[in-house]
Amino acid sequence: MKLKLDLHDIYNRGGEIDRALRAVIDEAVAKKAPVVEIIPGKGSGQLKKHVLRFLERKEIKALYHRVEKDKDNFGRVFVHFRWK
């Protein structure tokens, strides 16, 4: 199971972006999903930077294993989880 979050619709609403990111991370934890795909899109790169800053927060970083930036598609970020 892979969860997916497309941020194209809310790209210019910072508070909603943070809530959507938090919701998908919480859902992944609840369902023990191995991967979350976040699509900030290509654009100027500001939304991707926002997503990466969000993922670097101490309380969020404690929930996942690693972040992978898609080398083939600049507009995608994968968040990997490790479950025991």
Describe the structure.
InterPro entries: Smr_dom, Smr_dom_sf. It holds the Pfam family Smr. With 84 residues, the protein is of the alpha+beta class. Helix content is 38%, strand content 21%. The protein has 3 helices and 4 strands; from the N terminus they run βαβααββ. The protein has helices at residues 14-31, 46-55, 58-61; strands spanning 2-6, 35-39, 66-69, 77-80. The protein has a 4-stranded mixed β-sheet with strand order 1-2-4-3, covered by helices on one side. A hairpin with a 7-residue loop joins β3 and β4. The longest helix is centred in the N-terminal third of the chain and has 18 residues, at 14-31. The model has no long low-confidence stretch (mean pLDDT 93).
Short description:
The chain has 84 residues and is an alpha+beta fold.
H and E order: EHEHHEE
Largest sheet: 4 strands, mixed
The global form is globular
What is the number of E strands? Answer: 4
Please report the distance between the alpha carbons of the first and last residues. Answer: 16 Å
Give helix % range. 25-40%
Q: Can you count the helices? A: 3
Mean pLDDT: 93
Radius of gyration: 12 Å
Contiguous low-pLDDT stretches (5 residues minimum) are none
Q: How are the strands of the largest sheet arranged?
A: 1-2-4-3
Strand content: 15-25%
**SS-based structural class?**
alpha+beta
